[in-house]
Design goal:
Layout: H1 6-21, H2 30-35, H3 42-51, H4 57-61, H5 74-89, H6 102-125, H7 127-130, H8 146-181, H9 188-200, E1 211-212, E2 218-219, H10 221-250, H11 261-286, H12 297-319, H13 326-343, H14 351-366
Antiparallel strand pairs: 1-2
Helix pairs in contact: 1-5, 3-5, 3-8, 3-14, 6-12, 6-13, 8-13, 8-14, 9-14, 10-11, 11-12, 12-13
Bound molecules: iron/sulfur cluster (SF4) (2 copies).
Keywords: Membrane, Transmembrane, Transmembrane helix
Organism: Palleronia aestuarii
Protein name: Citrate/tricarballylate utilization protein
Length: 375
C-alpha cells in the first residue's frame, strides 16, 4: 500500500508484523484495534497512533525489538506518526509549518506577547500607576479595564476553539470516512466511554506495571503527573469561567476574597498545573530513550512550559496581588495565557482532542460497530 510518508510506511510494516504475532493484544487499545484490520491505510495508522499512550510496554515485551532484524519499535514509530498527524490535520493549512521547530515558535511568540503586554501596560498607565495599582479597589482592572481584556482575549479564545475544531473534524472525518459511508453508528455511549478512558488514562499503565523509565524501572508516576496537569487545567478554566459569570450575571468584580469560588478553583488548579507539569517534564527526561520521538522534544517541552508558566504566574499574581509587583505580574500572566490560547491549535495541546476522538472510535469498534475490511 502507498503511504504519504516513510514514517507511515514503517508503521504499516510494524502493524503487519504485530498483526501476525498478536502477543501484545492485552496491553492497550492499539492492538485490539489493529486486529480488526487486515491492511493499514494512512488514516488507520493515524488512528492507531493516537490511541497509543507511549507507555513502552510493547517494546519491552517484544521478541522482535532491536537488535532483532525485524526491528519492531511500536512506541517510537507510533509517536512519530502521531506527532506528524497534528500538523497534517491542522487548520488553516498555512500554519501547519508551525509544528516544525515548534518549541522555537512558541518561545518566540511567548516572549513577544509578554514584552508587548509589559510595554503596553507601562505605556498606557505610566510607571507610577503600575507600581501602585494594588492600592485601588479595582486592583488589576485599574491597569487593564475588563472590557479591554474581553476584547483581547475573546477573539483569541474563539480563534483557538475554531482552529482546534477544524483540525479535530478533519482527523475524525479521515479516520471514520469509510465506516460512516457504510452506515456504522457512533452512539452517545461511545463518546461517554471515550470520556471515561481519557479521564482515567486507562491505557497509560503499560498493561498494568506502569511506564518503563531509562533506569529500566516501571512507574505509574506519569499517569499521576498527567492527572494533576489535566485536572489542574480544567480547574483553572472553571475559575476563569466562574469569574466571568460573577462579572456579567452577578455584577461582582474581581478581585475576590481568598475563600470565594474563582480563587479557590484557581489556587487548587494552579498548584495542580505547576506540580503536574514539573513532574511530566521530569518523567519525559527519565523516559526510556529508545521509545521517544526526540525530534519533537521541543514541542513537548514548549507545551509543558506554557502550562507551567500559566499556573506559576497565576499563583504569583494571586499571592502578590497586594504588592507593587502586581502590575508586572499581571502583564506577564496575560502574555503567557494569550500565548497558550493562540498556539493551542499548533502544538501538543491538540493531542488531547485527537486521543479522545480515537478513543471514541475505538469504543464504537469494540461494540461491534465496524464495517469489516477487505483484504
Ligand atoms: S510489539 Fe512485538 S511482541 Fe508485541 S505484537 Fe508486535 S511483534 Fe508481537
Ligand atoms: S506503547 Fe503502550 S500504548 Fe503504545 S502501543 Fe505499546 S503498549 Fe500500547
Amino acid at each position: 500500500m502507498e503511504h504519504r510518508t516513510a514514517t507511515l510506511a514503517e508503521a504499516d510494516r510494524l502493524m503487519t508484523v504485530c498483526n501476525s504475532c498478536r502477543y501484545c493484544e492485552g496491553l492497550c487499545a492499539v492492538f485490539p484495534a489493529m486486529e480488526m484490520r487486515r491492511s493499514f491505510a494512512d488514516a488507520d495508522l493515524n488512528y492507531l497512533a493516537n490511541l497509543c499512550h507511549n507507555c513502552s510496554a510493547c517494546y519491552h515485551d517484544c521478541q522482535f525489538a532491536p537488535p532483532h532484524e525485524f526491528a519492531v519499535n511500536v512506541p517510537k514509530v507510533l509517536a512519530e506518526v502521531r506527532n506528524d498527524s497534528y500538523a497534517h490535520y491542522a487548520w488553516p493549512a498555512a500554519l501547519q509549518p508551525m509544528f516544525r521547530r515548534n518549541g522555537l515558535w512558541i518561545g518566540l511568540i511567548c516572549a513577544t506577547l509578554v514584552a508587548l503586554f509589559l510595554f503596553g501596560t507601562f505605556l498606557w498607565n505610566g510607571a507610577g500607576a503600575v507600581f501602585s495599582a494594588q492600592t485601588t479597589p479595582e486592583n488589576f482592572y485599574a491597569l487593564m479595564p475588563h472590557n479591554v481584556m474581553v476584547a483581547l482575549f475573546g477573539p483569541a479564545f474563539l480563534f483557538a476553539i475554531l482552529a482546534i475544531y477544524m483540525g479535530g473534524r478533519a482527523f475524525w472525518r479521515d479516520i471514520s470516512a469509510r465506516d460512516m459511508e457504510d452506515g456504522a453508528h457512533q452512539s452517545g455511549i461511545d463518546y461517554a466511554r471515550a470520556g471515561h478512558d481519557a479521564g482515567r488514562l486507562t491505557y497509560l499503565d503499560g498493561g498494568g506495571d506502569g511506564c518503563m523509565n531509562a533506569d529500566e524501572q516501571t512507574s505509574d508516576n506519569r499517569k499521576l503527573w498527567h492527572h494533576l496537569t489535566f485536572y489542574g487545567f480544567l480547574l483553572c478554566f472553571a475559575s476563569t469561567s466562574t469569574g466571568t459569570l460573577y462579572h456579567y450575571l452577578l455584577g461582582r468584580e474581581a478581585p475576590y476574597p481568598w475563600w470565594d469560588l474563582p480563587v479557590v478553583l484557581g489556587t487548587v488548579g494552579g498548584v495542580g498545573l505547576v506540580v503536574g507539569t514539573a513532574g511530566l517534564l521530569r518523567a519525559k527526561l527519565r523516559q526510556y530513550h529508545d521509545v521517544r520521538d526526540d525530534t519533537r522534544f521541543g514541542m513537548d517541552a514548549a507545551f509543558i512550559a506554557m502550562l507551567f508558566g500559566t499556573g506559576l504566574t497565576g499563583l504569583l499574581l494571586l499571592f502578590l496581588r497586594e504588592t507593587p509587583l502586581m502590575g508586572i505580574l499581571l502583564a506577564v500572566h496575560l502574555g503567557v495565557v494569550m500565548t497558550l490560547f493562540l498556539t493551542a491549535p499548533y502544538g501538543k495541546f491538540v493531542h488531547g482532542i485527537y486521543r479522545y476522538l480515537a478513543l471514541a472510535r475505538f469504543a464504537r469498534e469494540r461494540r461491534g460497530e465496524m464495517v469489516p475490511q477487505d483484504a
